[in-house]
Predict the 3D structure of the following.
Amino acid sequence: MNKLNFLQPDKNNLNTYLYTGVILVAFSIFIVFLNSFFNKDIVSFLPGPISFFLPLILGFIGLHLIRIDYSGLRFLDSINKNINTNNFNAFLSLIIVFVVIKSLPPLLSWFIIDANIAGDSKDVCTGSGACWTYIKIWFNRFMYGMYPNPEQWRINLSFIALAFLGTIGFFATEKFKKYLTLYYVVVYPLIAFFFIFFFISGGPIFFDFSYGIIAAVISIIIGFFIPSKFKMYYFIIVPITLYILLKYVFFYEELIELGKLEALEWVETGAWGGLSLTFIVSFFCLIFCFPIGLFLSLGRRSDFPIIKYISIGMIEFWRGVPLITVLFMSSVMFPMFLPEDMFIDKLVRVIIAISLFEAAYVAEVIRGGLQALPRGQYDAAKSLGMGYWKMHILVILPQALKLVIPGIANTFLALVKDTPLIFVVGLLEIVGMLNLAKTNPEWLGFAMEGYVFASVLFFIICYAMSKYSYNLEQKYKTER
Amino acid sequence: MNIKKILPQLLTLLAVILIFGFFSYNAQVNMENRGITFGYGFLSQESSFDVQFSLIEYDGSHSYFRAYLVGLLNTILVSVIGIFFATIIGVVVGIARLSNNYLINRTAAVYVEFFRNIPLLLQIFFWYFAALRALPLPQDTEPMFGVFFLTIKGFFVPAFVWNNLDIFIYSIIAAIITIIFVRIYARKKQENEGIQTPVLSISIGLLIILPFLSFLFGGVDASVEVPVIKQLSQSGFTYEGGIKLPPELISLALALSLYTATFIAECVRAGVQGVSKGQKEAAASIGLTPNQVLKLVVMPQALRIIIPPTTNQYLNLTKNSSLAAAIAYPDLVLVFAGTALMQTGRAIEIVSITMLTYLSLSISISIFMNWYNKKIAIKEK
């Protein structure tokens, strides 16, 4: 029998230290467990402060006793290495364990045990827990806003179709792989637009845009047959001319009639809302802000002074102001800048405002990627005789964009998290709907449930997005 | 100069001028139709609306300009509080993220992932409408430490009542100036003779002793005014005396600091991880103690990585404080771009002033950051 020194446990009396320590730690956890789950204080005979700190002291001594280096027991070594390296760490670990045990029962009882979900009125919510009935009853409103109930299949159908069309990339065969970029950049957004415009809205609200879309499609198709030398000027001039021709010469009124689907009831954008509006706004802003940001970042690094300073001005302006003032501007100031008879729908104004705002952030992120590329890449591309656009599309941008995937993902996340701000112009997406529901006199006092529900939804969406971007980053990582 | 260089620039310029011209022409026509004349003269008119929480004296008889100042000061107040707490939480969590203790590490990671993946507006609503509404009424409140009262109507804290406050402030300024001189002297001494002076303990001593002397000899006197409960009506109670922090301010500051702290924590983590291991080993091998390694080798290099993104986060926090409008905390956006705009109807002037305020704030900070980055950048030889 070696001499026991409880201040410095060592390997010689491993078993003695180990058993004493484990028993002490287990006892301390047991005390807290009983206290929190069964509301029983077995050490209450001790004076107040001592009984309060007793588990902490016992656990601390126990952890001190089992802190033996190279004990030869795998489990003990891993505990010592991970949560018990020194006194301070042992203390913090104990506090974390105790806090978790202590907070489990109230959380469990609020979320599950004392919660109610049955029934369809407020009366069933008598327990002290959450009232999930409230979420159940209002679920449709939280998802679709004020969109009329019988028409909600239109939103569902559109989203299912879009989600399906969005996954086409995974199933494409080798032969079609090279068209995927074109599909995702041009065709898919167009399909999405038509779905949302014809299906969800069902009316001629912003119909002016469809001339523009037709013009864009026709000019892209013709664009394939134009020699590349003139392409840049072609893409500036032809769509505008086509648009004017289409709108004022060929189909002045006829196309509007053509575009209407008589069978569908028109639902104004003011009635859209809930989570589906969150998706619609984030989707369009994502699509628009990326190309705008790309051009702004290229403009900022351009050799042409006028383009450079205009881009700098744009970027710094949008980055310098809070989004809420931008939305204020789009709702109260922007109509002053338009002709009396011209009216742009609220939702469209919001989408334009958020896109421009986020585009400035995307531009700065992409600029970081462009700056990170070594000069040699530019020189090599130029020495092959490539022009500005060819160099950027084929050499620079693929490498630069790969570098900035995390940054762009962060910007997109910020965009999704910024969508609730559209309450400023009176559009109610899910957070706005929650605030509306909570002021309903029939359902007062359930604010907490609503916010917890929305938080969980947003957490799932944003966390999934950030994990996906991490995967993307790993996939396109190339060693330099 | 060839045509290929000039044409795109001219086209862009033309487009920008056309858009601006279109907008300003329409604005002119619209304003003429509504009978409004453009101008900033309204700023000196009487505002005739009240603001519930203001740092300077203000009521309806003051001008719109004063309302603007009230809003601006409230924005600055909540930003400063938010930045203060966000920095503390962020640094603690960032260091916890680096801990080799698995439990601490995971707890910090869960906190970061959770709070930064939920929209800030939702968090503000949660604290304001759900969490703080669960607080007790003023008459049922148990005081914390006998002097703090956390109630549904706000947080009541004791206020200091000062005599000869200016002398106290002078003593603190004198202490700071002395500390600067001591530092210069200590650095010189170290460079010339290699002897280190305990600057930190001297500084702390100075900061305590000089204000203490001002109490003894300067006639400075401070007493504490504790809030006292007062009955307004049959069931209405409130506290009098002390300082009242409205629940809007508390929930806004809480949400802002908890949200921004997650980003600051990531900045801190990236900064400390960015210092290469070789640096620490090299420092240890020339005989520096662990504390010296941290102070002289790791921190200076880590701070170089940490400070620029953290400043950006401070800026973001200040801009995000404009979400105050959602819970009626009277900040710049709510008071000026909200109430004042509704009353005067001068959309262009008011929105432009509000935007310019934020813009000048962020541009001045980014100019400062550029200067700072240039100053601390590693000078390679």
